[in-house]
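Aim 2, interim progress. The first record below pairs a target sequence with its structure tokens.
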Amino acid sequence: MATGVTDPREIVDSGRMTWRQIVVVALCVLLNGLDGFDVLSISFAAPGIASDWGVDRAALGIILSMELIGMSVGSILLGMVADRVGRIPIVIVSLLVMATGMTVAALASGIVELAVIRLITGLGIGGMLACTNAIVAEASNARYRSAAVAIMAAGYPLGAIVGGAIASSLLVDGTWRDIFWLGAGMTIVFLPIVLLVLPESIDLSMRRFGPERALDKVNKSLRRLGHRVVEMVPPVEVVAKADRAGLFKGDMRRVTILLTVAYFFHMTAFYFILKWIPKIVVDLGFEPSAAGGVLVWANVGGMTGSLLFSVLATRMPLRRLMIAILVLSFVMIAAFGLTSGGLDPLKRAAAIAGFFSNAAVVGLYALIAAAYPAQLRAGGTGIVIGIGRGGAALGPVVAGFLFASGFGLPLVAAAIGLGSIVAAFAILGLPLERPVARGLAGKSARGAG
């Protein structure tokens, strides 16, 4: 770095969290909430779809997983593109894909058509997830980075709670198609807000354009974050494209593989709860609107777990905290499968299972954001989430076939919940030193465990 030239990345890292940075994090919380509702919209609609079109459990499990497959592809491809062209263009494209997909889903006339629509919608959701994680990590200072990422992840259950409450009320007098109309409208609202508020990655601008061409772009981002502008940008290594190979070099290879394994297997358990609760509750004899209420409680527990985790992550070794939460996630998912006695016990069991399973997801996002430097962050997030979403798609499908084969809820819940145990062993294998320690609360490596 040239003598006397202030690195704008250091301004953000070492400075206080300004109100504009808090607004950026809050917007990403809402964008993640939009993702949460869009993903779960098919869960709220599932009982009505099964009733209208006569869909059995095995086929419904495939439909419930289609947008998760799209999310896998979208996270990988759009995450890599975001490391090349910037975060904001990909966020805009993702929102347009999501809005279009929700609109067309509301007009679907058959199960195959709906499956294809949900697959395409998942591309946008995956691209959004890869970008928001990176944006929050890069817009936050070093002290609060992990907490900010954890709070961002809490937006997912928040979207499911708010959207789910509205969806449940829509189902009282409306149809499952109204849920998709709601999602389309909410998605469109965010387009102008994103263009006005979100900053582009400072590090990425510096590496893409070099000191002279990057100055205006860097200062625009600094202003959007509420920090002073700079007169010069220090020279850094210019990269023409995302370094895909960097994700599998040295320590990064081990980190990428283990995070992907952990995310993949925990997602099988997490999405079993989120995708199957409405259908399970309806099959127990309750109305679809009541089933949606149980799913809302699962997400209330999930949001509570997310927020508590964001506090604990600044005070406890992250890796050890994650292992404990993953083990408890398995226990509580298995316990949900044993719940009986009416709607209230189901709500309590769903909330507790949601608490631990979603807290584990938040921890995985924090680990992912901390593991990669800026030039690899969206691509790394995309790889881990993209491949990991295969587990999200696998969980509901395997559960559907197990149910169709005659296995009961207790055995299915325990079997699928084992994914959290596999994830715990993967986290146990992560290295203690950087890169996993980077970005965690405080300036020491204690956050890595």
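The second target in this work package is listed in the same format:
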Amino acid sequence: MKTATTIYTCTKCDAQSPKWTGQCLECGAWGTVAIGATSTSGSGSGSSVRLSGQTSRHPGVPPAKPEHFDDIRSEDSVRLPIGIDELDRVFGGGIVPGSVTLVGGEPGIGKSTICLQVAVKISKNKKVIYASGEESAAQVKSRAGRIGGGTNEMLFLGETEVETIIATLNHERPALAVIDSVQMLRSSEIPAEAGAVSTIRGATAKLVEFAKRTSVPLILVGHVTKDGNVAGPKTLEHLVDAVLSFEGERTGQLRLLRVLKNRFGSTDETGIFEMTGEGLKEITNPSAYMLEERNGSTPGDVVSCVLEGTRPVLVDIQALVQPTSFGYPTRRATGFDQSRLEMLIAVLAARGGLNLGQHDVFINVVGGLKIKDPSVDLAVLLALASAHSNQSLGDLVVWGEVGLGGEIRPVPATDRRLSEAARLGIKTAITPLPRNKTSVRLKGDIEIRDVHTITEALTAVIKTKA
């Protein structure tokens, strides 16, 4: 005996429930729950699901003819160069025809600015369409004028209905189209408001299908949630070809463009920019930029080297250690993981003999950079020891991952890190001990002091007071 079960679906968040409610139990929206599907189950040979009155069984549909891989001709796509070195690095040499790229980031971080710069750069000799549902034509033109450069071949489209946008792109056939933003898109075929999960997913799927059919590359702008995911959440990342994350502190000038996904290139590249009144400017020498205002004679100041993509970047780690005025000491970290800082303080006490249990500890990464590379562990420990002993460590660079046993583990790309430090004139490097190597080696003009425990590292740089 077969029974039919009605499934109700929220048109805003796609949550499902077996009964109708006035308010969605997941997203809290009112009046968005409607009949979404009917499930038929029972003792028959199978079950079927009907969506909007259609059955999932299609006996009259003819099969498609698959192609043999040996008969498929492989062609290398000619990329569209942007003309901005940092962006071309991130895109893998340029924009692939027919690709769909999603640029995500927090509101106000500069997503629209960097996409507009790409459009302005390419529009000097190729047709570009900039579609925006968040700004008027006058506002976009004003920002384009502030960025600088001619926009002879740039067209503005103030439209949010995806069917109209696709029809316009199909008629104009531009070299590039920018959609700002996907959260503002709506569709006449989807009974949901703009910003709903179903609307975002359906509109993006239509745009992807158009891009693959016409080879017109698209750049989509998307906002992120408080969790750092593209608002949806993460419902678009599997649809597009590339996902770029635009990061930085809105109060600072440094901006990073990281590659989270790229079907046509490497995911190990990062573009580094500076936000100015004339838009985003690429930083060709990030190490010099990070150390520009550094005072090497200050206690608690240590230089480390991290990898941003495949590029080594020297960063300035600052520490401040003071006796606590309260019963529970304060631990604060800016640009560094708070939990990892607490772990390193515990390792420093248990394995290095330096107990900071009655001290307030502050760590700051200069320049607004957010570091996730564990190679800065040793630099943080030595900065804490330097601040506690009030001793300056001088002009040296430090890196190495610290384990719970107090051991210092080697990190990748040691040669590239050493070359970057030597290029900026640093004379001494403290690094983990590689296998089958001597304890002190010379590489160019750098003296390398290899250490394999935090005790050895502390002994090498901190002078014991008599």
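Residues 3-55 form one domain. This observation will shape the mutagenesis plan for the next reporting period.
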